[in-house]
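Example protein was shown:

_____
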Amino acid sequence: MAHTLLLPLFFICGLTSTVGPTVEPAEMLLQPAGEGQLSLDPSEVATAAVDFGGVARAEPLAVMRPGCAGDVVRLVRAAYRSARWFPVSDRGHGHSTNGQALSPGGVVVQMSRGRIAPRPMPAYSPSTGEYYVDVWGGDLWVDVLNWTLANGGLAPKSWTDYLYLSVGGTLSNAGISGQAFHHGPQISNVYELDVVTGKGELITCSEEQNSELFHGVLGGLGQFGIITRARIALETAPHRVRWIRVLYSDFAAFTRDQELLVSLHGAHRSERFDYVEGFVIVDEGLINNWRSSFFSPKNPVKISSVQANAGLLYCLEMTKNYDSSAADSIDEVVEALLGQLGYIPASVFTTDLPYVDFLDRVHKAEMRLRAKGLWAVPHPWLNLFVPASRIADFDRGVFRGILGNKSSGPTLIYPMNKHKWDDRSSVVTPHEDTFYLVAFLRSALPDSGDPTQSLEYLSRQNKKILEFCDDAGIEIKQYLPDHRSRAEWARHFGPKWGRFLRQKGQFDPKCMLATGQGIPFPLV
């Protein structure tokens, strides 16, 4: 029997404070409180005990699916007032990679399966001259996209490559993709938040109101509160996308062109691309990697003749958005932009598709991997911000050194502009005007028979990459950080560490929230 119970949230907290976390469902009183569902169902608990990374496991006591922000308030407030300490962690779609959203012995708030109220319509703000939409913290970005497109032809400005992530989840980290050079990360495109702090207080915050909480929560790794509502900036959605990939064998030329393109962020839209990314190619299959639906099997990209002479290759990926009214001029615009670049001649590959299909490209690849049983495997990902001044050293030591000629998934590399990131947020980036995301999006295949595809091998390789950067004095910052010691976290946050500790004491003094991040606060 499924133990999905409509319980007073204070009741379970009271029980855990008196008899510990081994309470049987039969001992609980079935009394409704709010719209939330609190479940001890073994299948729900087991689901909440793991994440996309597949490298960490920790079972919670229970899973709560809130029906409204008030349910989150009641749970967190009861936990805060309880004599027995226990953690509360919010979970979106479960795409953390190192157990960041796990809550051992506590309660997981399953935000992406909660809230039953209808979504508000997109609205126009006369004060900003921009459109916006208010969304639930557990809403998936794909659902936000579909809603805003259907109601005004609008869309958020900044994205992640994969849309099946929760709004609250990406805003708690940053939310980045190839649009970040122009619009900034997703945390730079939020007007207002509703946040349930670790004291169980529901606070509305923005740049003008409760600004310290607002900036702290953005990129704050869930440490200061649970985002229940976010006001997201919108723009008119384009109709179509011209998607272009070009190849390089010279890393200096590749990064020079990438940095040129992101420097055009302030240019007229006809004089810049709308999306700039890139990746490393160690074998032909990776230009058609699982991140994209760039070409169908009937029209593959053939690069073997180029690679035979070049060895390692780098792919620069760009898009140009356009409307149906501009269809006659899009070729000319793209050709003018490509004319500034120094890629390998005859290595231009293009496709054209609807805007929504481009944004949802990774999900289409996900479906193919799921069909082959290759999606639900361990993902020992490593995401780094690398200062632009050291990216060539990183190439020599990692891409052409540690990685060798083996690949276990896409390796992304693309630059961003620091001034598009608000330094008041909790996110930390390198201290240079331009820095790169380097993302090793690995999949471990334990049954492949290849030891270089094992979780242990890939985890050791991640460690070697971090050790190389440390030994070479490359001041990287981890994106989606995975540190354990207090010294590592202090080094990660640098000058922001003192502020981070102070805000933790202010907004979550019992250190109950998002304990899966593994930050050993001195208050505990």
Remarks:
- DSSP finds 16 helices and 19 strands in the chain.
